[in-house]
């Protein structure tokens, strides 16, 4: 499990990577040591060929030592081959270390996703989150394969080569080093612009993902209303933005190596010119061997910088991805305070549990209240209906009772437990929830009921299916509970999906059930099947049913009428039927009896 934390999105992106490297020290310690050894060996081997070249030209050839030339040539070859072997080891080690760090990064992001508040998901498109998890993390990979660690070894090479240059000719070394500030200024200019372009690319990719997610979620509507052409046209906007930002990045990316090549050519020409004409500070003449070795060293000095330049785009891409990841990890997580757990004593009451809601206020945005001073007292094992017109705030209230959001003011207690602070793994044991529409996950019927919770036994799954009246349907399927449902499997009807959702809610036998418009849009017979299922599971459970019509709730002991985020009337159906007010208005409008006796 990833144990490191991101303080805030303002911290430098690389500090996250360095922290990750530190964190993997104990696991990958040997690999880091091997990598350091490889990098050092590579640097030393890099210096050997030019030194040998100098010796061949200045000593061996000058003095006619042909045998020595052979020996030097052999060492030259051995050094070049050694370089290749160490370069291979370095690539392998950096990839291995990089992949391990990426696993840690993905784990950290997955942990963060679980801790983010519901409000974050309300305001962030899913496509954007998918981009963080996929393409942004992938781009960070390049930081290891072609950036950070090879950058470090390249710096070692530059240092080693500069030392060798100094030994051969301090004057020429000085002239060469003069080019470094120019290189740095040029590189910095390109770095800034490429980074900007890469951030634009990342953003454009996020927009494309968001667009595609929206399109495929609503594909039925799009097809039904024949809106394909409009969507295709709309798709052109994010695609054009993407192309524009890629084009922007490509201009800088193509220019950079050319500029570097030109600087390299100028430095080599200056060295040859100055070196051929003059002698060094101490009066010694610059020999042909020194000059040849120097030209070779200049190439070798600039080649790490050149390599960096060629991989500049990928490094900048990684930095852009990393910056977005750091921003994502800096998103404020939910501070829930002291987390509560359920112990066995909690379930001893024969009657079930009570739900007390005291003066709660709540809104999705700080300046817009959706619920205002709402209070409800629901006694153990009672069936309560919350009725109100569309947009009255019923689902928002249910989300609060389910513990998905924290009220701005007031308190909710389920027999002493605050649902918001309840430990996530205990929530299902206390509350079952049937939302307005069921989400079917890709997988088997069993997995869809248990939600891949291995602690739930097959016996409990079968009991839940039987309770909601799904067992005959499941038994008739060739693979029974192992039948795959979802996009790649068999399709369930709306009513079957709702029954499955109910089985999912009751499989852990929770004492509280929250039902949000569970039968809306169903025909009377399917509604009866669902109502029968509710009655079967209702015994000793506290059930809160939400509906925007009176016929959508059953057997209520108490009804709360909601309007514009407030409770405007409450009482037993019989009491309310005798009063003037919202209930009788609803009743008249629907002209239906309270109890459904089909
Ligand atoms: N995730 C959200 N983010 C921001 N505002 C929201 C969100 N969900 C609901 N709202 C707003 O809160 C208000 C109440 O919505 P809510 O879904 O609670 O009403 P409801 O009574 O359940 O309606 P319905 O009967 O249509 O389901 C609405 O004005 C809605 O725009």
From TrEMBL:
<keyword id="KW-0788">Thiol protease</keyword>
<dbReference type="Pfam" id="PF00664">
    <property type="entry name" value="ABC_membrane"/>
</dbReference>
<dbReference type="GO" id="GO:0005886">
    <property type="term" value="C:plasma membrane"/>
</dbReference>
<dbReference type="GO" id="GO:0016887">
    <property type="term" value="F:ATP hydrolysis activity"/>
</dbReference>
<dbReference type="InterPro" id="IPR011527">
    <property type="entry name" value="ABC1_TM_dom"/>
</dbReference>
<keyword id="KW-0547">Nucleotide-binding</keyword>
<protein>
    <submittedName>
        <fullName>ATP-binding cassette subfamily B protein</fullName>
    </submittedName>
</protein>
<keyword id="KW-0813">Transport</keyword>
<dbReference type="InterPro" id="IPR003593">
    <property type="entry name" value="AAA+_ATPase"/>
</dbReference>
<dbReference type="InterPro" id="IPR039421">
    <property type="entry name" value="Type_1_exporter"/>
</dbReference>
<keyword id="KW-0645">Protease</keyword>
<dbReference type="Pfam" id="PF00005">
    <property type="entry name" value="ABC_tran"/>
</dbReference>
<keyword id="KW-0812">Transmembrane</keyword>
<feature type="transmembrane region" description="Helical">
    <location>
        <begin position="29"/>
        <end position="48"/>
    </location>
</feature>
<dbReference type="InterPro" id="IPR036640">
    <property type="entry name" value="ABC1_TM_sf"/>
</dbReference>
<dbReference type="GO" id="GO:0008234">
    <property type="term" value="F:cysteine-type peptidase activity"/>
</dbReference>
<keyword id="KW-0472">Membrane</keyword>
<dbReference type="InterPro" id="IPR017871">
    <property type="entry name" value="ABC_transporter-like_CS"/>
</dbReference>
<dbReference type="InterPro" id="IPR003439">
    <property type="entry name" value="ABC_transporter-like_ATP-bd"/>
</dbReference>
<keyword id="KW-1003">Cell membrane</keyword>
<feature type="transmembrane region" description="Helical">
    <location>
        <begin position="69"/>
        <end position="89"/>
    </location>
</feature>
<keyword id="KW-1133">Transmembrane helix</keyword>
<dbReference type="GO" id="GO:0005524">
    <property type="term" value="F:ATP binding"/>
</dbReference>
<feature type="domain" description="ABC transporter">
    <location>
        <begin position="355"/>
        <end position="589"/>
    </location>
</feature>
<dbReference type="InterPro" id="IPR027417">
    <property type="entry name" value="P-loop_NTPase"/>
</dbReference>
<keyword id="KW-0067">ATP-binding</keyword>
<keyword id="KW-0378">Hydrolase</keyword>
<dbReference type="GO" id="GO:0015421">
    <property type="term" value="F:ABC-type oligopeptide transporter activity"/>
</dbReference>
<feature type="transmembrane region" description="Helical">
    <location>
        <begin position="172"/>
        <end position="190"/>
    </location>
</feature>
<feature type="domain" description="ABC transmembrane type-1">
    <location>
        <begin position="33"/>
        <end position="317"/>
    </location>
</feature>
